[in-house]
Amino acid sequence: MENKKFPKMALFFLSFLYLIAFSGAVASNGIGISYGRLGNNLPSPALSIELLQNMSVSRVKLYDADHEILHLLSGKNIDVAITIANDEISAIAANQHLADQWVYEHVLAHYPNTRIRFVLVGHEVFSTIGTEQDMQIARDLLPAIRRIKNTIKAQGIHNIKVATPLAMDMMSITFPPSNGSFKPEIVDLMAPLLKYINATKSYLFVDVYPYFAWFENQAMNQTSINLDYALLRSVNVTYTDPQTGFMYTNLLDQMLDSVVYAMAKLGYNDVQLAISETGWPHAGESGASPENAAEYNNNLVRKMTAVPSVGTPARPGEVIPTFIFSLYDEDQKYGPATERHWGLLNPDGSPVYHVNITGKGASD
Fold first, then answer.
1. pLDDT over 70 for what percent of the chain?
2. Catalytic residue check, 295
3. Rounded Cα–Cα distance for residues 278 and 300 (Å)
4. What is the pLDDT of residues 38-48, one digit of tens each?
5. Catalytic annotation on 285?
6. How many beta carbons lie within 10 A of that of residue 282, not counting itself?
7. Direct distance between the N- and C-terminal alpha carbons of the chain, in angstroms, rounded to an integer
8. pTM listed for this prediction
């Protein structure tokens, strides 16, 4: 798709309209944690829920809809996001009865005692569209979301949002943020998805990792991304978008706003954003250390729990629901060593490094 430039004044107006539209919205700015279980040495679900409570976590994201865990979360003061697997999407998209059955078994069996607030359909579906089967799942994503939402709505439930988490590889351009654009091959899928998300007042969930952007920049022997800038601790390092004049003090805001402008190019200026995954590895590759992981996550918490909300330069004051990845290291994940070293806690439940999840009492 052609990368059309927005006039500077129009971009400022876009931001102003968003601020007006959502200044009265009531939303929690507590931090959540992603609870993945691809490990053979992890604590029991019961202990894990106890640890989440001890950390004062306000939200937890599950990569499935495990009955034991959802039962253990019953009566707890924790909002829950549950996930429908990618390989279930096409069947649900084709059959309302299967959508009904999934909601009855995984939502109604636990709601409202378990505070399910998000049903996430799939995981990074647009990241793998190389085969016809992958592409079919991508095409079936929105119909599946619709069916799940229809079932939930038919039950008179209005406080559960249905969405899908997408990765930053959905973008073809992220720099400068005002040039943000989706990959041409997914634009025809993104436009109707954004329309539906907007109509149902849900969120576009994004897995956004400044670490990977910084690491890839270093791997190419470039130094255009400063480590402090990636760690959200920038003091003297800033970037000013030449089209908008917005000044950025960290890479996370830059990445998020590139999505904002990509959505605006498709005509969707006010779709709410949420962060389904972000974090920093504490071991494995260059830049991965407990010190850097603690720095990033504590700075992230301070930013996202600030009152009033900070938002981003293009979305000032926006509350962005955020999940840190992840509760534990997962030793059965594939890929580079960093894939297995994102955990906040060790297998015995002790912290890998200190993170103040509440943000309260944290110094700037």
1. 91
2. no
3. 9
4. 999 999 999 99
5. no
6. 21
7. 42
8. 0.90
